[in-house]
Design brief:
Number of domains: 1
Keywords: Membrane, Transmembrane, Transmembrane helix
InterPro entries: DUF2062
Number of strands: 0
Helix content: over 70%
Number of helices: 7
Distance between the termini: 19 Å
Radius of gyration: 20 Å
Structural class: mainly alpha
Order of helices and strands: HHHHHHH
Shape: elongated
Protein name: DUF2062 domain-containing protein
Strand content: under 5%
Largest sheet: none
Length: about 150
């Protein structure tokens, strides 16, 4: 059952395209803003003519990591954007929304902008590293697979 799904996801992709799919899916899957993973991954895949299903699969496989990193990204993002208040925590946000929702929205806005800036900076470095690391590995693996398919009788 797994092999047909893997074949569908790899369909028509070169090792370079598959490496780019994984790198972009990883970046989209870790964006520190809930609700835009699918839009970001789909837009990137369509724009670059990659396999949309494979990009979405990679992006959504990173969802647990995204949930773990969202508060640290936003906390550091708030500090980056100039918030001099104590570090952003879930308890602090809950308290602010109960007592002063305008201040909570302001803090959240700065935290999201700063978190997105940190995420973009991180993936400007990590994206190419991931791509250039995966490209030869996938070329080797796909070359082995193609060679074994050519030898195997149908």
């Amino acid at each position: 059952m797994l092999q047909p799904v893997l074949n569908l996801l790899r369909q028509g992709l070169t090792p370079q395209q598959l490496a780019l799919t994984v790198a972009l899916g990883t970046a989209a899957g870790m964006v520190p803003m809930l609700g835009i993973t699918t839009l970001l991954a789909t837009t990137a895949a369509v724009r670059l003519r990659l396999n949309v299903a494979a990009t979405l699969l990679v992006a959504h496989l990173w969802s647990p990591v995204q949930l773990l990193l969202i508060i640290p990204f936003m906390s550091q993002g708030a500090r980056l954007w100039g918030s001099h208040s104590p570090p952003l925590t879930l308890e602090k946000l809950q308290y602010l929304f109960r007592h002063d929702w305008v201040a909570a929205l302001g803090l959240l806005w700065h935290a999201i902008l700063g978190g997105l800036a940190l995420w973009a900076g991180a993936f400007l470095v990590l994206g190419p590293i991931l791509y250039f690391t995966l490209r030869p590995v996938l070329a080797h693996l796909m070359g082995k697979r193609n060679a074994s398919e050519a030898v195997a009788p149908e």
